Amino acid sequence: MTTQPEPSTELGLHAVRQASGAVIVDLDETLWLRNSTEEYLDSIRPRWLVAAVLIMLRIFPVWRLMGTQEDAEDWFRVVVCSVVFPWAIPLWRRRVRTVGVQWLNRPLADAIVERFVSDGRVIVATRGFDVVVEPLVASFDLPAMDVVACRFRKGRLDRHAGKLAMLDDRYGSHLVNEATVITDSETDRPLLDRCAVPVLLQWPDARYVPAPRTYAPFGYTEMYKRWGQRYVFHIVLVRDLPLWAIATATIAPIPAGRHLVGLAMLAVSFWCVYDVGYLENDRVAKRWEHDAVLPARPLPGRRFVIGAWAWALGLGAAAVYLLRPGEFLRGMGFWLGLLAGLRLVFFLYNHLEKSTRPVLYSVLQALRLLAPLAVVAVASAGVIALLLLSWSRSMLYVLYRSIRTPWLIVPHGVIDLVQLAIAYITLWRIGVRLEPEVVAMALAWMAFISRGEIRSSLATVRLISHSGTNDADAGTAK
């Protein structure tokens, strides 16, 4: 699996061969070039359902209610998935026969074999879990080694104690004091500080790829775009969805429970397509921006997008069936039109220069907050609340963009015109009677007084690919 060792890793291999005491070697991304916990979770089938469970555990970290430590999250994920999918462990035992040797760190494994020849002791010490680690280590083409891992039932306690405590409990403190320790992780600092020969290095072929890798709703937002921010919980579920419910539930013609379930499905369906836009945004930034802020892990491929659309269409259909049982085809047509419109606006937002983004962002926010109008009736007071929130978020983005790119001239008149048009369309959709001559004159006047901004905005509209960059200090609007 690995190529020839680099000079820094060669020093580590030499330390293993020349060790006078025991050799304690880390497993994840050291002896094995992947993370055993993440590979275990990724091996469980069906992947789409496992992905949904893992994303829900990120959105709702219920393990915190148990008073467990922060580093107990992996233990909780492994336990939940092993219980919910009881075939997971037997499936993993079969899978390691292939991936065990495939991702074995061969230079380090060869050094360990030499160590065995000289009657040395080698111990694999890991913060992984015994039910995952033991069959994995047994699959290596190596002499038998001791394995010190976190216990399945008491994994949160073992993780909190750390490797040093686990080793001392089993072998006594003298073993670590005379040992050579090789690891890639700073979390092993207490162990490195105690041992005789500490070796801390990163292996060039090692990769940490978190699970899930199959799309589930909110997957890109939680695992890539907003990693560690709990954005879905704090913004989508606490702010957006309750406003949808408040704005629609009191005038819904169906039972409240059914309405709320359908509305939740509608929100998830919408966000699946929003995830596609987020992914495209990062792909464009990776290609055209030198100062792009990108996720730490590699961006997913086409299957991720296909999965997002499959979830969006499936959940959308279920939501429309619940919300408009007698008008399914009509309601589904409206919903598909909204999703298509969202995808088009996000495409333009991603592929046109940054000078156009304040206007397009205001449209994205309007679509995001007013999406229920495509399927259900919205109370007038609810419409006002959603419109105001849309306008507020748009202005915050304008402020952010103005500070980050001070050369950008924000077309306030164009944004006002677009927001006014959105407001008129929204009010018409909920049945508010509007005087057509007033609507026409108001829109015409706004367009007239903003004609200079409109011309300037249209003049700066061009594809990023034509400019060759989308950095903050480049572009026609400079």
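^ that was protein a. below is b, sequence first then the tokens
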Amino acid sequence: METLIDMKHIHVSEHDLKRYNLGLITEEAELADLEKHLLSCPACMERSN
């Protein structure tokens, strides 16, 4: 999973959000990490919509 870093937080990359939304992330560990992050990060959750 690629990440974007701002001053205080690490965020999911646009590329990985697109892969997630298209259902292209099939590795369970990567999917679990991404979903866990989305649940705890309103900024990434909003970007994923």
